[in-house]
Amino acid sequence: MKKQILVIGSGVAGLTSALRLQHDGYTVTLYEQRDHVGGKMGQIKGNGYTFDLGPTIVMMPHIYKEVLAYTGVNPDDYIQFTPLDPMYRITFQDGETIDATTDLEKMTYDFEQRTPGTAQGFLSYLNDTYTKYQVAKDHFIEKSFRKRTDFYNPKTLWNALKLKTFDSAHHTLSKYIKDEKIQKMLSFQTLYIGISPKKGPSIYTIIPMIETLYGVHYAKGGMYAYAQALERRFKELGGKIVLNTRVDEVLFDNQVAKGIRIKDQIIEADAVVVNADFPHAMNNLIKDPKVKGKYTEEKINNMAYSCSVFLMYIGLKKKVPSLKVHNLYFGGDFDQNLDEIFSGTLPHDPAYYIYSPSQIDETVAPLGHEAIYVLVPVPELKTATFTWTDEIKENYKQKIFAKMKQLEGLEDMEEHIDFYTTMTPPDFEADLSAQFGATFGLAPTLGQSNYFRPKNVHPYAKKLYFAGSSVHPGAGVPIAITSGKLVHSEVKKDV
Ligand SMILES: Cc1cc2nc3c(=O)[nH]c(=O)nc-3n(C[C@H](O)[C@H](O)[C@H](O)COP(=O)(O)OP(=O)(O)OC[C@H]3O[C@@H](n4cnc5c(N)ncnc54)[C@H](O)[C@@H]3O)c2cc1C
Question: Which atom from ligand 1 is nearest to the alpha carbon of 248?
């Protein structure tokens, strides 16, 4: 008889592990508390507009495609990616803009024009970072740390040293590039995974290098199209998805996972994969102290969390051709902005990001309209020194609107809004069970990375696996996909 696997949560890591396992002959059932799959890669629809809930920037599309290809189909029949050029536009407080492009010659020339000498620093940065990327990929990201000796062995420790990761991303970059605006342009990306470039380990300088190498792509229909592609393939292979169903507990017999409980219904299985946010799962789904191990509620609550975001999804009854698909706007003092986010204050002059897929995709907004998604990094709920009351939400919306109205084509935006909704940190906590509303999960500090991050194979129980942003290797869609892939291979070793 086929082995039964239960997956809790349909985030991208849950879908990836479920699909791979179903393909390999297991009977997989996936439980999701929401009414659609994807988790943070969800979708918001209203008044003819379609918005991606969370992720928008597709990096390394080959990683996305590989999951589908593994199941024997042509990924292009399920999802279409288009490279974007420019990848994104950055606008500084003084109005200066720089377009990030994969055209290396142009990028290098533009940097050199701004500040002579930058070309050499930029090329050296790419060269050195590429080496680190290879080491990180081969020895840390694509490897599951099951036991102590998987990490504490001469080869891995030597490779860890090669990553020179003790410095911060921003400081590392400043050794290559002196121009402050370019420094910002090549270091803000740590915010993609919810950490400050001033504090986040230097390894995350690989993000802009990866963008330059592989480009930034757009998935037709939006990022949610990828969750739908995985869902479609999973169902084609006979996988079962149960929506609108919250799992209440993972059940154990003598520290061996035996199934799950949904209200008073018990469902048995040969293994359980948890894609729900690891800290949330530990505090809520795992009741047995022996299985919690060191992850007591106190320990979980004291761990370091990534920042959160304030999101506005705006349907606009007009076109704004001055926008690119991805647009980043810096406020006045980026250092202060970062300090505020990570010390619990609502930033008073924040950097923000606008995503406008309707620039190139007619399926996401009515003809002649724009779908505009606005993201502002804000503190997660543990650090926040304020509460998200309706008044705070409205005031913050007005603050960001005031900034947006200074942009070309958006001066009269308020007269053209015919759809508006938001997601705040408490919404991420309530709707997606993200602990403290930390949108990118546990922070990837050194003490919470690689061997030290919660593991794909739970150390305190058999047949219990974790896939998702808060476990190894970490947050971001390609990395969460990798987490699902690692879980798939670990389950196959045991079950
Ligand atoms: C606003 C935002 C912007 C982002 N931008 C990007 C980007 O541009 N590019 C990029 O690569 N990454 C981006 N990310 C990060 C990326 O979206 C995440 O790292 C990734 O989607 C997380 O996937 P996951 O598998 O960890 O699960 P999640 O998406 O967290 O899904 C977990 C699922 O488990 C379900 N669940 C929880 N508990 C239970 C339960 N008890 N029973 C049943 N179901 C349960 C939840 O409802 C949820 O659906 C962004 C994230 C956010 C929030």
Answer: 41
